[in-house]
Design a protein that fits this description.
336 residues, BirA Bifunctional Protein, domain 2, rod-shaped, binds 3,4-dihydroxyphenylalanine
């Protein structure tokens, strides 16, 4: 048996090797108790210290303590290595690779135009109203004074649902929401209605079977065509530029009397080689419409208008095909 002092270094080396070899916490713990546990080899060595001759004790004691310190440090180091290994992914990760970028979305160009229109009308005290896209023929036509033999009610123009009473259809215009709101609310009324409408058109550069409209309705006492024109002019100038002029041309709609088509002129229109471009329909609410919703036409007056959103968006962004708005092609949408 070698002298105690000569056993320290080899035993320390053996312990260090085992600590390093431990592949998991259980193995490390096992190695720890083998050397440093109550019945461990290294502990046994320390116990023998007391039996040494007095003059050998200090040197051996110092060496043992130093070795023990080293072993405990090695144990702690290996323990944290194993802990780290346990939480890291098994496959090596290359932290220098560039991250994956998540694309930021943006509003659809039609949504942007609708939001701008709504913002302008809000300045004038209008609020947004809403109605169903699946409508009955009463709200879409009859209540708007559109007779049963009117071409708009033709199955060639309108998508009808297979539901005879009431006769259901996909609304062909947002004007139906005028009726819905007036049925529920007493005057005065100041609403705008952005919404999707449907018509049996074949898709081409300027037509799509579904598109968006915005409807406006103003009902109060003593409302005039002047109010209508002033409002329309304010909003279109905000929307299409300060150089925008508008004009009213007499027209016919069954739910307004008198009725007008609105044309506008500005630099964009001139660039297209035209003097005026038709943009909307409007008029003074027909007394029969008021009767249909239970308003007294002797007391109440009003105006209404409606126009297509895509037309405005196409002019504004220089888009030449309406179908682009509905194809959801990222290369197109990303530009807005
Ligand atoms: N509903 C009409 C259309 O679809 C637009 C319209 C014209 C709405 C005149 C109105 C109006 O409120 O007064 O083309």
């Amino acid at each position: 048996m070698p002298a105690l002092i000569d056993q320290i270094e080899p035993l320390k080396q053996a312990a260090l090797a085992q600590f390093q070899a431990a592949e998991d916490m259980a193995a490390l713990d096992q190695a720890r108790s083998q050397f440093l546990g109550a019945h461990g080899q290294f502990t046994a060595l320390m116990k023998q210290l007391g039996a040494l001759p007095k003059e050998e004790k200090p040197a051996a004691g110092k060496q043992i303590n130093q070795a023990k310190g080293e072993l405990e440090a090695a144990l702690a180091a290996r323990r944290s290595e194993l802990e780290l290994a346990a939480v890291l992914p098994k496959d090596p990760t290359d932290f220098t690779l560039p991250g994956r970028r998540r694309g930021l979305g943006c509003s659809h160009p039609l949504t942007q135009v609708i939001e701008d229109i709504v913002r302008s009308f809000r300045k004038l005290g209008f609020v947004v109203a809403d109605g169903p896209e699946i409508e009955d023929d009463y709200h879409c036509f009859d209540a708007l004074n559109t007779p049963a033999d009117h071409p708009a009610r033709d199955t060639q123009d309108t998508f009808y649902l297979d539901h005879p009473t009431p006769r259901l259809l996909l609304r062909t215009h947002t004007s139906s929401v005028q009726i819905r709101v007036m049925e529920k609310q007493a005057p005065p009324i100041r609403i705008i209605v952005p919404g999707r409408v449907y018509r049996r058109d074949n898709a081409d550069a300027t037509h799509n079977p579904t598109f968006q409209q915005i409807e406006g309705l103003y009902v109060d006492r003593g409302v005039t065509v002047g109010d209508l024109k002033g409002t329309v002019e304010f909003v279109f100038r905000e929307l299409l530029g300060a150089d925008t002029r508008i004009r009213f041309r007499p027209h016919y709609f069954s739910y307004t009397e008198p009725s007008f088509e609105i044309d506008f002129a500005n630099a964009t229109v001139r660039k297209m080689g035209k003097a005026w471009l038709e943009i909307a329909g409007c008029g003074m609410v027909h007394p029969q419409v008021f009767v249909n919703v239970g308003y007294d036409p002797e007391q109440w007056t009003g105006w209404a208008f409606g126009f297509g959103i895509e037309r405005i968006a196409m002019l504004r962004y220089g888009v030449n095909d309406i179908r682009l708005f509905y194809e959801n092609d990222q290369r197109f949408l990303r530009q807005f």
